[in-house]
Amino acid sequence: MPEPDVTEEARVTGGVGMVGAGGTAGRYVGARVQRLEDPRLLAGRGHYIDDHVVPGMLHAAFVRSPVARGSLARVDVSEAAAMPGVAAVFTMDDFRAVFKPTYSTIIGRDAVTPPLRPLADGDVRFAGDPVAIVVAQSRYLAEDAAEVVDLDLEPMPPVLDSATGLASEILVHPETGSNVAAQISALADDEQAFAAAAHVVTETVAQHRYVAVPMEGRGLVASWEPGRGELTIWAATQAPHEMRSYCARMLGLPEHRVRVVMGDVGGGFGQKMFVTREEMAVVLASYLLGAPVRWIEDRAENLLAGGHAREEQATISMATNRDGHLLGARVHHVENVGAYSVPGTGSVGGGVAAFFPGPYRLPTLSFTNQAVYTNTCGRCAYRGPWLFETVAREQMMDIVARAIGMDPLALRRANVIREEDLPYTSATGVPYARISPAKTLEQAAELIGYDSFRREQQAARARGRYLGVGLSLYVEPIQTRGPLGSEGAILRIDPTGEVTLIMGTASHGQSLETTMAQVVADVLGCEPGSIVFIQGDTAVAPWGPGTGGSKSAVIAAGAAQLVAEQMRDKLLRVAGHVLEVSVRDLELSGGGAVVRGDPEARLSLGQLAEAAYLNPAALPAGLEPGLLVSARSVAPPLVLANACHACTVEVDVHTGRVEILRYVVSEDCGPMINPMVVEGQIAGGVAQGIGGVLYEHMVYDGDGNPLTTTFMDYLLPTAGEIPDVEYGHVVTPADTPGGFKGVGEGGAIGSPPAVINAIADALAPLGARITGTPLGPAQVLAAVAAAEAAAAS
Amino acid sequence: MKPAPFEYHAPQTLEEALTLLAEFGDEAKVLAGGQSLVPVLALRLSRFEHLVDLNRITALRYVGAADGVTRIGAMTTQAAIASSPDVRTRVRLLADATARIGHFQIRNRGTIGGSVCHADPAAEYPAVAVTLDAELDLASVRGTRTVGATEFFTGPLMTVAEPDEVVTEIRFGPVVSGWHAQGSAIVEMARRHGDFALAGAACAVEVDPAGRVRSLRLGLFGVASVPVRARAAERAAHGAVAADLDPVAVGRAAVADVSFAADVHADAGYRERVAAHLAGQAVRQALAEARSAGPAAAAGGAAGPGGAV
Amino acid sequence: MTEHQLDVTVNGRAVTATVEPRLTLADFLRDRLRLTGTHLGCEHGVCGACTVLADGAAIRSCLVFAIQMQGAAVTTVEGLTPDGGGLSDVQEAFRAEHGLQCGFCTPGFVVSVTAFLDANPDPSAEQIRDGLSGNLCRCTGYQGIVRAVQAAAHARREARDA
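The joint structure predicted for all components is written out below.
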């Protein structure tokens, strides 16, 4: 199939939201439609899990290990169980008979995982490891009782970092026989390429531990009703069907006896995608008590045990010829996945390997990886879990550029995959098509004013000020393999003509309530605000893989499009029957069916519905009564988006403070359903990248005690730290209905290296070496001081 | 994250509060703005059988000035201090410090008494108190005593206040020869807007009509276990020609004898290097303001141009 | 522990309740009065999701005990929302500028921004970012939030000058 032309380039800086400003009348896709979610959320009338009341519900609090590793001889709950208002205190002993270890539907039954247990069992494996669950009349009383649970705990030396994990005899999970959770060895035949290279540059790039921090933590109310044999779970989840099947298997219940309902959810970023141990414990507690049990994770728990991310490093060698063309790369990647990681082992080595070549013509890649268990909080998925491929590669591009005397933009231009190179198969076998990295590189460079910035930078240096520019270019896979490749939708028009869209999605900030309505409204010729959107209730919603992985615009919009088109066809047939005209002469617009060129000859959706429902015998043979259609999308096995980030900074070499001057993103996610939503997703990801590099750092001390478990020490960026983000858009459609691609994770993927490279660029004249993160003021100043010392000696 | 149970008392007068504290001793804790105490209670890092809430004692909320002395009631909120014309004209350094405290929502409840009693070595109010040699009154059923700011702070989160004592007033001044109006500056390195300082310096300087430094007060905060006065640097600057002072040298001298703290945000080396830089900046800004303000004015003169960053 | 009687006005309505001293104002509003618009994001006074007005001043309701509000007038996000389904000018600005995504931090921002603009009718860009720095958002990157404050301030200026 020939490559489609890039259809348009649009330069947009975040503008005022407008309704219906998409061009032709009635066209919502492509417009900055204001969100249908907003009125209730702005008025404080959202319904989050902490708002949900189930009559008779009890409240849970966890007893957690105070040490990183230790043997647990005994858990004495007698005093706690006798405290006022306490219904029960459960340990793993209580759960053993009913807990059946199981697998995640989304990642499959064959995935390797750490040992599965909701609570500690005879030993503790990280500080924060849940040991017991207290269930009481209120959270206040549950915490009072949790304090008096007595742990007979013998601390043992922990393994805290990857290097120790690999070298030590101490096993984090004795059952597994090794601290190596996963490993990869994919060596290419690159001896000749490296031997012949004009330049070989080697560096070790490190990424520190930082975490997702949704503003709402985890939470659920689980209600097992023994009389009915039904389990209902209201949850802050990103994947209600995943939670449903997992909990059903965990208790040995048939899937259709379990219902999961999600209301409004306050962000997730991957932390709420998979069922976690505390959630298992809450469900088990409800099962044993035959009563509703509620757990609302507090912030200390969320930082301590909600799932960590990002701690990994790689030693990378890149070979180039004299002109800077890449000849090959060798990467040895080591990840610290903590103790009880999820999903699977928490390793992202496969993704890092597959996408390390990124948007460049890299002929060969040798990749080895080890993922290491440690006595720290386990990894969870966090927005772009594999993003280290971009973080490491983009830093290396700048390091190589400086080493061989080329400008970083020039080196990228020399190697970027261009339109004429497509289709292109990467060194790791990934087929690249329908991407535009070269266009985004040029657009970002132009938007940031790269050349004039270089002049400004030079002038500033002469005055003793250190400015820098950083680029970050990447290709992003939209996760549509296996069960992730399909979403379902049900479209129902009721006898009065009201439209309801029911999907298996789990939008938690992605604005699907609005964007899916835009898709349907365009096809049905009605207004998005007239469509009621139901998601997240497994009793009524078609099975879905959850919302995450940047795939909503592909599979969810695809399903909404399909089901709307089927409904349109049905409506036109009903209209044709009632008006006695050919379907070819009819169209849907203005909230009904109308004969083309004869605006008087129309039927509203209400009239069509009446005809469809209330006089079924009058309908022609072959036209089923009612207006209910169901469809599932199937995504191509791989959809790729791409973008380029560019960032300028000033570094204060006296304090180590980094100020971001400008931040630009040139994004190609194909046509946009709602540019306002796209830009918002990018901006949120960018803020997490900036936060990760400059402010956020999850730190353990030498004994494995976490030091950053409140917002006093784990620092999130505020409005004072995030600059205006400027956007450019390039449009390369995917091979999907509407051509949409995903954009949810891209902002977080592209941002860290843009900031890191800008800092390194600013400090390059001092000879400062920047080889990763964190880059808080202390680290930046240390790099400056080290460069001064080296220069002095 | 719910606090452990406690008994709650809301006395209407200082006498009632002191009686309660005498009765309960170290089982009681004073509740002022709560912006520092309540998180500690919520995290169950500490607990107390009794909380004595001072917020009903309106007699402890005031800003007054007489005879060159500015008196501030301990329960005066940071917001009230920020908007007080008396503080802005008489203790400008305190007003400038207030803008750096947390966020406006914190300042609506946080009090000056609470801040000094909490004694975080990175906090702004203890630093200003030490820099300006403020006096604090401590009251108990046994009477009232006055303690100088430097003696008041004894360690991180530690003061000389006994469990049954309440800080009732903090005083700045007396102003001699209008030195409050001469020049002052507070500079800090905080990671984000409103954070506690990784390092900071507060400076107040008085320059005589001949251009000589009559007095230099320089306090460092966020760097050690308590706010510290850079006495050696101050002594060296005394009598020097202001225009000849090298802020970089003053900054280096300021850090010479300080024992720098380390934590998850910065090590001692970072704090020393940055404190020296900030001390120099604070001195430079304070001197610049003093020089542009002109010769020493009488007590109560108008403030000079803003110099703090 | 001894419970206390609390008389407080919430969103204009007089409320009497018996409370345990350790019950935070946030939990009192949410659990006892079912005003669940005020959210708990950290319970240690940093994130601002729990911001309410107490006698007109924006405060963190997680850092105040309900009993401390004896005799006070408390306003929550529900109290800032016009009756009958409309939105306040600040809320409208947030909607127009896409200043929210998951919505969890949003009530805290609405309350804080309302108080901020009442006290600072003509804020500079820097003052806006400083004024917003006491509320955390994880979804928006603050872009739409900053624009919303600018838009609301601008609209108020226009209304004043008209």
